[in-house]
Amino acid sequence: MDIRQLQYFVQVARLNSFSNAAKSLYISQPTISKMIRNLEVELGADLFYREGKSIRLTDAGQILLTKAQNIVESFGSLSSELDSLRNLKQGHIRIGLPPMVGASFFPAVIGQFHKRYPEVTIRLHEDGAKKVENDVETGLIDIGVVVLPVNMAKFHCFTFIEEKLELLVPIGHRLAGVSNVRLGELAEEEFVLFREDFALHDRIITACVKAGFQPNVVYESSQWDLISRMVAAGLGIALLPETICRDMDRSRIEIIPLTKPAIPWQLGMIWRRDRYLSFAAREWISFAKGLLGEQFLPSDYIDISDT
Question: pTM for the complete prediction?
Answer without folding.
Answer: 0.66
